[in-house]
Amino acid sequence: MPRKDAVSHILAQGKQDAPLRLLKPQPDDIADASASHDPRQYQAFTTGMKPPRLTIRYSSQPSRSPPYIALLDVVFDERFAQTASLIFTHMVVTITGKNLTGVVAAIRRHRAINITGFDAQVFDAPADDMPVIESIEIEAGGDDTRTDRARH
């Protein structure tokens, strides 16, 4: 097949596959969670393409990783962006902080890979306009309540 015909064939195939291209993630839509960054730089959350679980990182306790399939509802403070409750089938996770709009949006879209509580002993202070999770509280059946508050 001559080169011109091969290129025409590829272009024609691309037009036929247009609906499939809409489903492919665009590079600008996804933050690379594996990208290396300064470990002292605080990130309240990282995103990716539909992770199966949300990892909840405490500053002083073991992490938890509930599946998104168990997330029933997200109750959030849309006006002030300071609190959100994630209602799972087996527990309720309440996060408080500031500038949480992006965190909540990522969780609602099932794009958040993890959320991380801020700890001044571990991280440098983020800019004033960045999201900061100051506390994470988990209530899981019975008296199993774990709270992790930010250290300033």
Uncertain runs: 17-34
Helix content: 10-25%
Terminal residue distance? 68 Å
The overall pLDDT, averaged over residues, is: 81
Describe this structure in words.
Helices cover 18% and strands 30% of the residues. The strands form two sheets. The chain has a five-stranded antiparallel beta sheet, with helices on one face. The longest helix has 14 residues, at 3-16. The chain has one domain (40-149). Strand 7 and strand 8 form a beta hairpin. Mean pLDDT is 81; it is low at 17-34. It has 152 residues and is an alpha+beta fold. The chain has three helices and eight strands; from the N terminus they run H-H-E-E-E-E-E-H-E-E-E. The protein has helices spanning 3-16, 18-23, 101-108; strands at residues 45-47, 55-57, 71-76, 83-88, 92-98, 112-116, 132-140, 144-149.
